[in-house]
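Long-time lurker. I teach an intro course on protein structure, and each term I like to show students one example going from raw sequence to a predicted 3D structure in token notation. This year I'd like something fresh instead of my usual example. Would anyone be willing to generate the tokens for the chain below so I can use it in lecture? Attribution to the forum is fine with me.
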Amino acid sequence: MTAKTPALLGAAHLIDALNARFGQACAWLTLFLVLGTAIVVILRYGFGIGAIALQESVMYAHALVFMGAAAWTLHRNAHVRVDIFYQKFSGRRRALVDLLGTLLFLIPVCLFLGWNSWDYVTAAWSTLERSSESGGLPLVYLQKTIILVLVVGLLLQGLSIMIKCGYLASGRIVEETEEVKHG
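-- Reply from a regular --
Happy to contribute to a lecture. Here you go:
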């Protein structure tokens, strides 16, 4: 007989799964980045043809690769971490460090970024901002929205981290991680 997963922990796992799926989809855009950039270069220097829309598409994809996959990277613990002691800490102590780091750094930075970019994004949406380049994409407002995608993804992942760290620190669950091993 298995114990039923608590609702909060289930929500954390759902957030993890959503961020993982979205991050994996964004990661596949790297293939488009390579192919799109190669085509732009071949067209420009091989045939003297400019491909502004393709060039801008590559730029949009680049933004999605990094900002769209950031929450997935955080979930996998694959972000840059400068630590001396963290690796040697017990699971409970790491959970406390992650909980405090999320509360003191991740959440405030995300809220600051969201607050400061809101007007920038809404102004782009209010005019359905288009590319200033002839032949460019009419979707600049969508590109600017990727900033808010970053904020929402990281805030949700931060919530997931706080839930799991709370359960870990209280000893109600054991450490489970999809952590990327460094070094």
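Some talking points for your students: The radius of gyration is 20 Å. The first helix runs from residue 7 to 27.
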